[in-house]
Amino acid sequence: MQGSQVLLFVPNGHLLTSLLTMKYLQIQRVITAPQQVHITQGDYDGKAVIISWVTTSESGPSKVQYGTSEEKYDFSAEGTMTNYTFYKYKSGYIHHCLVDGLEYDTKYYYKIGTGDSSRKFWFQTPPKIDPDAAYKFGIIGDLGQTYNSLSTLQHYMQTGGQTVLFVGDLSYADRYEYNDVGIRWDSWGRFIEQSAAYQPWIWSAGNHEIEYMPNMGEVLPFKSYLHRFATPHSASKSSNPLWYSVRRASAHIIVLSSYSPYVKYTPQWRWLREELKRVDREKTPWLIVLMHAPIYSSNVAHYMEGESMRAVFESWFVHFKVDIIFAGHVHAYERSYRISNIHYNVSSGDRYPVADKSAPVYITVGDGGNQEGLAGRFYDPQPEYSAFREASYGHSTLEIKNRTHAFYHWNRNDDGKKVPTDSVVFHNQYWASNLRRRRLKKNNSRTATGLAATSDSSL
Ligand SMILES: [Fe+2]
Prior knowledge:
Elements: H1 2-6, H2 13-32, E1 35-41, E2 49-55, E3 63-67, E4 75-78, E5 80-82, E6 85-86, E7 89-90, E8 93-99, E9 107-112, E10 119-124, E11 135-140, H3 147-157, E12 163-166, H4 179-196, E13 201-202, H5 223-228, E14 244-248, E15 251-255, H6 267-278, E16 286-290, H7 307-319, E17 324-327, E18 333-336, E19 339-340, E20 354-355, E21 361-365, E22 386-390, E23 394-400, E24 405-412, E25 420-427, H8 435-440, H9 451-454
The protein binds fe (ii) ion.
Protein backbone atom coordinates (compact mmCIF):
# COMPACT_ATOMS: atom_id res chain seq x y z
CA MET A 1 0.00 0.00 0.00
CA GLN A 2 2.45 2.64 -1.08
CA GLY A 3 -0.12 5.41 -1.38
CA SER A 4 -1.12 5.07 2.27
CA GLN A 5 2.29 6.35 3.44
CA VAL A 6 1.58 9.76 1.93
CA LEU A 7 -1.58 9.99 3.93
CA LEU A 8 0.23 9.67 7.25
CA PHE A 9 0.94 13.40 7.04
CA VAL A 10 -2.70 14.31 6.69
CA PRO A 11 -4.74 15.13 9.84
CA ASN A 12 -6.96 12.24 10.73
CA GLY A 13 -4.89 10.29 8.28
CA HIS A 14 -5.84 6.96 9.78
CA LEU A 15 -9.39 7.21 8.51
CA LEU A 16 -8.27 8.48 5.14
CA THR A 17 -5.74 5.69 4.90
CA SER A 18 -8.47 3.13 5.49
CA LEU A 19 -10.75 4.78 2.95
CA LEU A 20 -8.03 4.98 0.36
CA THR A 21 -6.96 1.40 0.99
CA MET A 22 -10.56 0.30 0.43
CA LYS A 23 -10.70 2.38 -2.73
CA TYR A 24 -7.41 0.90 -3.87
CA LEU A 25 -8.70 -2.60 -3.34
CA GLN A 26 -11.92 -1.78 -5.18
CA ILE A 27 -9.96 -0.46 -8.14
CA GLN A 28 -7.75 -3.52 -8.03
CA ARG A 29 -10.80 -5.74 -8.06
CA VAL A 30 -12.22 -3.94 -11.07
CA ILE A 31 -8.92 -4.22 -12.90
CA THR A 32 -8.57 -7.94 -12.28
CA ALA A 33 -12.17 -8.78 -13.16
CA PRO A 34 -12.31 -11.42 -15.93
CA GLN A 35 -13.26 -10.06 -19.32
CA GLN A 36 -13.52 -11.31 -22.91
CA VAL A 37 -15.08 -14.55 -21.70
CA HIS A 38 -15.69 -17.15 -24.40
CA ILE A 39 -16.14 -20.90 -24.58
CA THR A 40 -15.58 -23.58 -27.17
CA GLN A 41 -16.02 -27.33 -27.28
CA GLY A 42 -13.24 -29.00 -25.30
CA ASP A 43 -13.23 -32.58 -26.55
CA TYR A 44 -14.27 -34.75 -29.49
CA ASP A 45 -17.83 -35.56 -28.41
CA GLY A 46 -19.20 -32.53 -26.53
CA LYS A 47 -18.70 -33.54 -22.88
CA ALA A 48 -16.15 -30.78 -22.26
CA VAL A 49 -15.74 -27.06 -22.80
CA ILE A 50 -12.71 -24.81 -22.83
CA ILE A 51 -13.49 -21.61 -20.95
CA SER A 52 -11.22 -18.65 -21.81
CA TRP A 53 -10.96 -15.16 -20.40
CA VAL A 54 -8.56 -12.26 -19.92
CA THR A 55 -7.49 -10.40 -16.80
CA THR A 56 -5.44 -7.24 -16.82
CA SER A 57 -3.07 -5.77 -14.25
CA GLU A 58 -2.92 -8.96 -12.21
CA SER A 59 -3.19 -12.54 -13.32
CA GLY A 60 -5.65 -13.85 -10.77
CA PRO A 61 -6.49 -17.55 -10.71
CA SER A 62 -7.08 -19.67 -13.82
CA LYS A 63 -9.70 -21.63 -11.91
CA VAL A 64 -13.30 -22.24 -12.98
CA GLN A 65 -15.92 -23.15 -10.41
CA TYR A 66 -19.02 -24.80 -11.82
CA GLY A 67 -22.11 -26.78 -11.00
CA THR A 68 -25.55 -27.68 -12.22
CA SER A 69 -27.56 -25.30 -10.05
CA GLU A 70 -27.24 -21.56 -9.71
CA GLU A 71 -25.07 -20.30 -6.85
CA LYS A 72 -23.92 -23.84 -6.13
CA TYR A 73 -20.53 -24.46 -7.62
CA ASP A 74 -19.72 -27.96 -6.46
CA PHE A 75 -16.85 -28.56 -8.86
CA SER A 76 -13.76 -26.75 -9.96
CA ALA A 77 -11.15 -27.05 -12.68
CA GLU A 78 -7.71 -25.54 -12.92
CA GLY A 79 -6.59 -23.96 -16.17
CA THR A 80 -3.48 -22.37 -17.58
CA MET A 81 -2.41 -18.79 -18.18
CA THR A 82 -0.53 -17.30 -21.10
CA ASN A 83 0.30 -13.85 -22.50
CA TYR A 84 2.15 -12.35 -25.42
CA THR A 85 3.48 -9.12 -26.84
CA PHE A 86 2.66 -7.64 -30.23
CA TYR A 87 4.89 -4.73 -31.19
CA LYS A 88 4.90 -2.81 -27.86
CA TYR A 89 1.45 -4.00 -26.81
CA LYS A 90 1.44 -6.37 -23.86
CA SER A 91 -1.60 -8.61 -23.71
CA GLY A 92 -3.52 -9.20 -20.52
CA TYR A 93 -3.31 -12.54 -18.76
CA ILE A 94 -5.13 -14.99 -21.02
CA HIS A 95 -6.66 -17.93 -19.19
CA HIS A 96 -7.80 -21.22 -20.74
CA CYS A 97 -9.49 -23.81 -18.56
CA LEU A 98 -10.67 -27.21 -19.72
CA VAL A 99 -13.82 -28.32 -17.93
CA ASP A 100 -14.45 -31.97 -18.78
CA GLY A 101 -16.45 -34.96 -17.66
CA LEU A 102 -19.71 -33.07 -18.11
CA GLU A 103 -23.13 -34.63 -18.48
CA TYR A 104 -24.92 -34.28 -21.80
CA ASP A 105 -27.95 -32.05 -22.21
CA THR A 106 -27.34 -30.23 -18.95
CA LYS A 107 -27.21 -26.58 -17.99
CA TYR A 108 -24.02 -25.68 -16.13
CA TYR A 109 -23.39 -22.48 -14.21
CA TYR A 110 -19.81 -21.30 -13.93
CA LYS A 111 -17.90 -18.67 -12.02
CA ILE A 112 -14.47 -17.19 -12.77
CA GLY A 113 -12.39 -14.65 -10.88
CA THR A 114 -12.35 -14.10 -7.13
CA GLY A 115 -14.22 -12.11 -4.54
CA ASP A 116 -16.16 -9.07 -5.70
CA SER A 117 -14.55 -9.29 -9.13
CA SER A 118 -15.87 -12.77 -9.89
CA ARG A 119 -18.26 -13.14 -12.79
CA LYS A 120 -20.92 -15.76 -13.43
CA PHE A 121 -22.15 -17.32 -16.67
CA TRP A 122 -23.82 -20.51 -17.85
CA PHE A 123 -23.86 -22.87 -20.82
CA GLN A 124 -25.85 -25.86 -21.98
CA THR A 125 -24.09 -29.08 -23.01
CA PRO A 126 -25.32 -30.71 -26.21
CA PRO A 127 -27.40 -33.89 -26.35
CA LYS A 128 -25.36 -37.07 -26.53
CA ILE A 129 -24.02 -38.17 -29.89
CA ASP A 130 -27.06 -39.64 -31.61
CA PRO A 131 -28.04 -39.79 -35.28
CA ASP A 132 -31.42 -38.23 -34.57
CA ALA A 133 -30.32 -35.58 -32.09
CA ALA A 134 -31.87 -32.25 -33.05
CA TYR A 135 -29.53 -29.27 -32.84
CA LYS A 136 -29.39 -25.71 -34.12
CA PHE A 137 -26.12 -24.19 -35.32
CA GLY A 138 -25.48 -20.59 -36.28
CA ILE A 139 -22.96 -19.76 -38.97
CA ILE A 140 -21.15 -16.42 -38.84
CA GLY A 141 -18.13 -15.22 -40.78
CA ASP A 142 -15.92 -12.15 -41.23
CA LEU A 143 -17.56 -10.46 -38.27
CA GLY A 144 -15.27 -7.58 -37.29
CA GLN A 145 -16.51 -4.93 -34.89
CA THR A 146 -18.75 -2.38 -36.55
CA TYR A 147 -22.38 -1.35 -36.29
CA ASN A 148 -23.14 -4.08 -38.84
CA SER A 149 -21.18 -6.64 -36.80
CA LEU A 150 -23.34 -5.82 -33.79
CA SER A 151 -26.48 -6.11 -35.92
CA THR A 152 -25.39 -9.56 -37.16
CA LEU A 153 -24.58 -10.80 -33.66
CA GLN A 154 -27.83 -9.53 -32.18
CA HIS A 155 -29.86 -11.01 -35.02
CA TYR A 156 -28.15 -14.33 -34.47
CA MET A 157 -28.83 -14.20 -30.74
CA GLN A 158 -32.56 -13.96 -31.47
CA THR A 159 -32.57 -17.25 -33.39
CA GLY A 160 -32.14 -19.70 -30.52
CA GLY A 161 -28.98 -21.06 -32.13
CA GLN A 162 -27.06 -23.30 -29.73
CA THR A 163 -23.51 -23.19 -31.12
CA VAL A 164 -21.76 -20.87 -33.56
CA LEU A 165 -19.73 -22.25 -36.43
CA PHE A 166 -17.35 -19.37 -37.13
CA VAL A 167 -15.77 -19.39 -40.58
CA GLY A 168 -12.78 -17.13 -39.97
CA ASP A 169 -11.74 -13.47 -39.92
CA LEU A 170 -12.63 -12.56 -36.36
CA SER A 171 -11.66 -9.09 -35.17
CA TYR A 172 -9.99 -7.38 -38.17
CA ALA A 173 -7.46 -6.09 -35.64
CA ASP A 174 -4.81 -6.35 -38.35
CA ARG A 175 -6.44 -3.38 -40.09
CA TYR A 176 -4.86 -1.28 -37.35
CA GLU A 177 -1.21 -0.53 -36.60
CA TYR A 178 1.19 -0.89 -33.72
CA ASN A 179 -0.41 -1.19 -30.29
CA ASP A 180 -3.90 -0.79 -31.72
CA VAL A 181 -3.71 -4.33 -33.12
CA GLY A 182 -3.73 -5.84 -29.64
CA ILE A 183 -6.23 -3.29 -28.35
CA ARG A 184 -8.67 -4.24 -31.13
CA TRP A 185 -8.39 -7.92 -30.21
CA ASP A 186 -9.39 -6.96 -26.67
CA SER A 187 -12.37 -4.91 -27.80
CA TRP A 188 -13.52 -7.75 -30.06
CA GLY A 189 -13.27 -10.18 -27.16
CA ARG A 190 -15.52 -7.91 -25.12
CA PHE A 191 -17.93 -7.55 -28.05
CA ILE A 192 -18.57 -11.27 -28.62
CA GLU A 193 -18.80 -12.13 -24.92
CA GLN A 194 -22.56 -11.54 -24.92
CA SER A 195 -22.92 -14.75 -26.94
CA ALA A 196 -19.60 -16.58 -26.70
CA ALA A 197 -19.58 -16.77 -22.87
CA TYR A 198 -22.85 -18.72 -22.99
CA GLN A 199 -22.44 -21.06 -25.96
CA PRO A 200 -19.49 -22.56 -27.81
CA TRP A 201 -18.07 -20.85 -30.84
CA ILE A 202 -16.27 -23.35 -33.04
CA TRP A 203 -13.31 -21.45 -34.43
CA SER A 204 -11.65 -21.52 -37.81
CA ALA A 205 -8.94 -19.06 -38.85
CA GLY A 206 -9.04 -16.61 -41.75
CA ASN A 207 -6.43 -14.48 -43.48
CA HIS A 208 -6.96 -11.65 -40.99
CA GLU A 209 -5.70 -13.94 -38.24
CA ILE A 210 -2.28 -14.39 -39.94
CA GLU A 211 -0.96 -10.96 -38.84
CA TYR A 212 2.34 -11.22 -40.65
CA MET A 213 3.51 -7.65 -39.99
CA PRO A 214 7.28 -7.40 -40.46
CA ASN A 215 7.16 -3.59 -40.38
CA MET A 216 6.28 -3.94 -36.69
CA GLY A 217 8.70 -6.81 -36.14
CA GLU A 218 5.83 -9.33 -35.97
CA VAL A 219 6.44 -12.34 -38.20
CA LEU A 220 4.95 -15.28 -36.28
CA PRO A 221 1.72 -16.24 -38.10
CA PHE A 222 -1.53 -16.45 -36.09
CA LYS A 223 0.20 -15.16 -32.92
CA SER A 224 -2.73 -13.26 -31.41
CA TYR A 225 -5.33 -15.81 -32.56
CA LEU A 226 -3.52 -18.85 -31.18
CA HIS A 227 -2.90 -17.20 -27.82
CA ARG A 228 -6.49 -16.09 -27.44
CA PHE A 229 -8.59 -18.88 -28.96
CA ALA A 230 -8.08 -22.46 -27.90
CA THR A 231 -9.34 -25.42 -29.90
CA PRO A 232 -9.57 -29.12 -28.90
CA HIS A 233 -7.31 -30.24 -31.74
CA SER A 234 -5.56 -33.05 -29.86
CA ALA A 235 -8.90 -34.77 -29.25
CA SER A 236 -9.21 -35.33 -33.01
CA LYS A 237 -5.55 -36.39 -33.35
CA SER A 238 -4.61 -33.14 -35.07
CA SER A 239 -1.08 -31.80 -34.57
CA ASN A 240 -2.18 -28.19 -34.97
CA PRO A 241 -4.95 -26.06 -33.43
CA LEU A 242 -5.69 -24.56 -36.86
CA TRP A 243 -7.31 -27.76 -38.16
CA TYR A 244 -9.34 -30.24 -36.12
CA SER A 245 -12.80 -31.68 -35.78
CA VAL A 246 -15.54 -32.06 -33.20
CA ARG A 247 -18.67 -34.14 -33.01
CA ARG A 248 -21.72 -32.46 -31.58
CA ALA A 249 -25.23 -33.96 -31.31
CA SER A 250 -25.75 -35.47 -34.79
CA ALA A 251 -23.03 -33.52 -36.60
CA HIS A 252 -19.38 -34.17 -37.37
CA ILE A 253 -17.74 -30.80 -37.95
CA ILE A 254 -14.36 -30.61 -39.68
CA VAL A 255 -12.40 -27.35 -39.44
CA LEU A 256 -9.77 -26.70 -42.10
CA SER A 257 -7.15 -23.98 -42.36
CA SER A 258 -7.10 -22.19 -45.70
CA TYR A 259 -3.78 -20.55 -44.78
CA SER A 260 -1.78 -23.55 -43.64
CA PRO A 261 -0.15 -26.06 -45.98
CA TYR A 262 -2.66 -28.61 -47.32
CA VAL A 263 -1.10 -30.12 -50.44
CA LYS A 264 -0.29 -33.82 -50.60
CA TYR A 265 1.67 -35.24 -47.63
CA THR A 266 1.42 -32.10 -45.48
CA PRO A 267 0.19 -32.62 -41.90
CA GLN A 268 -3.21 -31.10 -42.69
CA TRP A 269 -3.66 -33.28 -45.77
CA ARG A 270 -2.70 -36.44 -43.88
CA TRP A 271 -4.87 -35.54 -40.93
CA LEU A 272 -7.94 -34.92 -43.11
CA ARG A 273 -7.43 -38.19 -44.96
CA GLU A 274 -7.55 -40.08 -41.66
CA GLU A 275 -10.29 -37.97 -40.10
CA LEU A 276 -12.66 -38.56 -43.03
CA LYS A 277 -12.27 -42.31 -42.43
CA ARG A 278 -13.22 -41.81 -38.78
CA VAL A 279 -16.53 -40.16 -39.67
CA ASP A 280 -19.34 -42.53 -38.70
CA ARG A 281 -22.55 -41.45 -40.40
CA GLU A 282 -24.46 -44.05 -38.38
CA LYS A 283 -23.67 -41.95 -35.31
CA THR A 284 -23.22 -38.46 -36.77
CA PRO A 285 -25.12 -38.32 -40.06
CA TRP A 286 -24.36 -34.65 -40.75
CA LEU A 287 -20.88 -34.05 -42.13
CA ILE A 288 -20.03 -30.35 -42.20
CA VAL A 289 -16.76 -28.72 -43.22
CA LEU A 290 -15.65 -25.20 -42.28
CA MET A 291 -12.96 -23.25 -44.12
CA HIS A 292 -12.28 -19.61 -44.80
CA ALA A 293 -11.68 -19.19 -48.53
CA PRO A 294 -14.70 -20.51 -50.48
CA ILE A 295 -14.19 -23.19 -53.10
CA TYR A 296 -17.17 -22.06 -55.20
CA SER A 297 -18.01 -18.36 -55.37
CA SER A 298 -19.14 -16.23 -58.29
CA ASN A 299 -18.23 -12.98 -56.57
CA VAL A 300 -15.58 -10.77 -58.16
CA ALA A 301 -13.86 -10.38 -54.78
CA HIS A 302 -11.30 -13.11 -54.04
CA TYR A 303 -12.37 -14.96 -57.18
CA MET A 304 -10.86 -18.47 -57.36
CA GLU A 305 -8.76 -18.05 -54.22
CA GLY A 306 -10.14 -21.41 -53.07
CA GLU A 307 -9.14 -23.12 -56.31
CA SER A 308 -5.97 -24.70 -54.97
CA MET A 309 -7.80 -26.27 -52.02
CA ARG A 310 -10.54 -27.43 -54.43
CA ALA A 311 -7.92 -29.20 -56.55
CA VAL A 312 -6.58 -31.03 -53.48
CA PHE A 313 -9.72 -31.89 -51.47
CA GLU A 314 -12.81 -31.78 -53.70
CA SER A 315 -12.66 -35.45 -54.71
CA TRP A 316 -12.62 -36.43 -51.01
CA PHE A 317 -15.57 -34.17 -50.23
CA VAL A 318 -17.54 -35.90 -52.99
CA HIS A 319 -16.36 -39.40 -52.11
CA PHE A 320 -17.30 -38.99 -48.45
CA LYS A 321 -20.56 -37.20 -49.29
CA VAL A 322 -20.00 -34.08 -47.23
CA ASP A 323 -23.34 -32.40 -46.60
CA ILE A 324 -22.38 -28.73 -46.50
CA ILE A 325 -19.16 -26.73 -46.72
CA PHE A 326 -19.35 -23.32 -45.07
CA ALA A 327 -16.81 -20.60 -45.89
CA GLY A 328 -16.40 -16.87 -45.41
CA HIS A 329 -13.81 -14.48 -46.86
CA VAL A 330 -16.07 -13.04 -49.57
CA HIS A 331 -18.20 -10.34 -47.95
CA ALA A 332 -21.46 -11.48 -49.42
CA TYR A 333 -23.81 -14.45 -49.30
CA GLU A 334 -23.92 -17.28 -51.82
CA ARG A 335 -25.23 -20.85 -51.92
CA SER A 336 -24.39 -23.40 -54.60
CA TYR A 337 -26.28 -26.39 -55.95
CA ARG A 338 -24.70 -29.81 -55.52
CA ILE A 339 -21.96 -29.67 -58.13
CA SER A 340 -18.44 -30.97 -58.59
CA ASN A 341 -15.49 -30.36 -60.84
CA ILE A 342 -13.44 -33.38 -59.94
CA HIS A 343 -12.52 -34.29 -63.51
CA TYR A 344 -10.73 -30.98 -63.84
CA ASN A 345 -7.43 -31.48 -62.08
CA VAL A 346 -5.68 -28.23 -63.01
CA SER A 347 -4.21 -29.55 -66.25
CA SER A 348 -6.76 -32.01 -67.60
CA GLY A 349 -10.48 -32.82 -67.75
CA ASP A 350 -13.65 -30.77 -68.04
CA ARG A 351 -13.05 -27.28 -66.70
CA TYR A 352 -16.52 -26.55 -65.44
CA PRO A 353 -18.63 -27.84 -62.57
CA VAL A 354 -21.39 -30.34 -63.30
CA ALA A 355 -24.40 -31.47 -61.28
CA ASP A 356 -23.33 -34.15 -58.79
CA LYS A 357 -25.68 -35.65 -56.21
CA SER A 358 -22.76 -36.80 -54.05
CA ALA A 359 -21.24 -33.33 -53.86
CA PRO A 360 -21.59 -30.90 -50.95
CA VAL A 361 -23.55 -27.67 -51.05
CA TYR A 362 -21.09 -24.77 -50.82
CA ILE A 363 -22.22 -21.78 -48.78
CA THR A 364 -20.36 -18.50 -48.38
CA VAL A 365 -21.34 -16.52 -45.28
CA GLY A 366 -18.65 -13.84 -45.25
CA ASP A 367 -21.18 -11.12 -44.62
CA GLY A 368 -20.82 -10.67 -40.86
CA GLY A 369 -20.30 -6.91 -41.14
CA ASN A 370 -16.65 -5.93 -40.84
CA GLN A 371 -15.19 -2.53 -41.66
CA GLU A 372 -14.12 -3.51 -45.19
CA GLY A 373 -17.73 -3.39 -46.37
CA LEU A 374 -19.68 -5.64 -48.74
CA ALA A 375 -18.39 -7.36 -51.85
CA GLY A 376 -21.14 -6.08 -54.13
CA ARG A 377 -19.98 -7.26 -57.55
CA PHE A 378 -20.86 -10.71 -58.83
CA TYR A 379 -19.92 -12.13 -62.22
CA ASP A 380 -22.77 -12.02 -64.70
CA PRO A 381 -24.57 -14.00 -65.80
CA GLN A 382 -25.03 -15.96 -62.59
CA PRO A 383 -23.26 -19.32 -63.13
CA GLU A 384 -25.42 -22.43 -63.29
CA TYR A 385 -23.85 -23.75 -60.08
CA SER A 386 -24.96 -20.69 -58.10
CA ALA A 387 -28.38 -21.12 -56.50
CA PHE A 388 -28.70 -17.88 -54.53
CA ARG A 389 -26.40 -14.89 -54.10
CA GLU A 390 -26.74 -11.49 -52.54
CA ALA A 391 -24.38 -8.88 -51.08
CA SER A 392 -26.07 -8.06 -47.75
CA TYR A 393 -24.98 -8.39 -44.14
CA GLY A 394 -26.33 -11.39 -42.27
CA HIS A 395 -25.79 -14.84 -40.81
CA SER A 396 -27.12 -18.37 -41.32
CA THR A 397 -28.69 -21.03 -39.16
CA LEU A 398 -28.70 -24.79 -39.69
CA GLU A 399 -31.43 -26.50 -37.72
CA ILE A 400 -30.86 -30.24 -37.75
CA LYS A 401 -34.12 -32.08 -37.14
CA ASN A 402 -33.06 -35.71 -37.37
CA ARG A 403 -30.84 -37.98 -39.45
CA THR A 404 -32.54 -37.12 -42.70
CA HIS A 405 -33.63 -33.49 -42.59
CA ALA A 406 -32.26 -30.08 -41.63
CA PHE A 407 -33.73 -26.61 -42.13
CA TYR A 408 -31.34 -24.01 -43.36
CA HIS A 409 -31.87 -20.23 -43.40
CA TRP A 410 -29.83 -17.23 -44.37
CA ASN A 411 -30.99 -14.17 -42.45
CA ARG A 412 -30.42 -10.68 -43.79
CA ASN A 413 -29.84 -7.98 -41.15
CA ASP A 414 -31.55 -5.22 -43.14
CA ASP A 415 -34.95 -6.76 -42.57
CA GLY A 416 -35.00 -5.23 -39.10
CA LYS A 417 -35.77 -8.48 -37.37
CA LYS A 418 -34.80 -12.04 -38.01
CA VAL A 419 -36.18 -12.88 -41.43
CA PRO A 420 -35.15 -16.03 -43.26
CA THR A 421 -34.29 -14.92 -46.78
CA ASP A 422 -32.74 -17.98 -48.40
CA SER A 423 -34.53 -21.06 -47.04
CA VAL A 424 -33.70 -24.63 -47.91
CA VAL A 425 -34.44 -28.05 -46.50
CA PHE A 426 -31.32 -30.18 -46.67
CA HIS A 427 -31.69 -33.92 -47.13
CA ASN A 428 -28.84 -35.76 -45.47
CA GLN A 429 -26.29 -37.04 -47.98
CA TYR A 430 -25.91 -40.40 -46.25
CA TRP A 431 -29.38 -41.20 -44.94
CA ALA A 432 -31.81 -39.38 -47.18
CA SER A 433 -30.21 -40.60 -50.39
CA ASN A 434 -30.48 -44.25 -49.51
CA LEU A 435 -34.00 -45.69 -49.36
CA ARG A 436 -32.86 -49.06 -48.01
CA ARG A 437 -31.06 -47.39 -45.09
CA ARG A 438 -34.14 -45.34 -44.33
CA ARG A 439 -36.44 -48.38 -44.39
CA LEU A 440 -34.12 -50.32 -42.09
CA LYS A 441 -34.06 -47.50 -39.60
CA LYS A 442 -37.67 -46.46 -40.06
CA ASN A 443 -38.68 -47.29 -36.53
CA ASN A 444 -35.87 -45.28 -35.08
CA SER A 445 -36.50 -42.17 -37.09
CA ARG A 446 -38.39 -39.30 -35.65
CA THR A 447 -40.61 -37.18 -37.82
CA ALA A 448 -39.37 -33.85 -39.07
CA THR A 449 -42.19 -31.49 -38.25
CA GLY A 450 -43.43 -28.72 -40.41
CA LEU A 451 -41.16 -29.47 -43.33
CA ALA A 452 -43.49 -28.25 -46.01
CA ALA A 453 -44.54 -25.19 -44.10
CA THR A 454 -41.12 -23.64 -43.75
CA SER A 455 -39.34 -24.55 -46.94
CA ASP A 456 -39.45 -23.18 -50.42
CA SER A 457 -36.92 -25.57 -51.86
CA SER A 458 -34.99 -28.61 -50.84
CA LEU A 459 -31.67 -30.23 -51.59
FE1 LIG B 1 -10.88 -13.22 -45.31
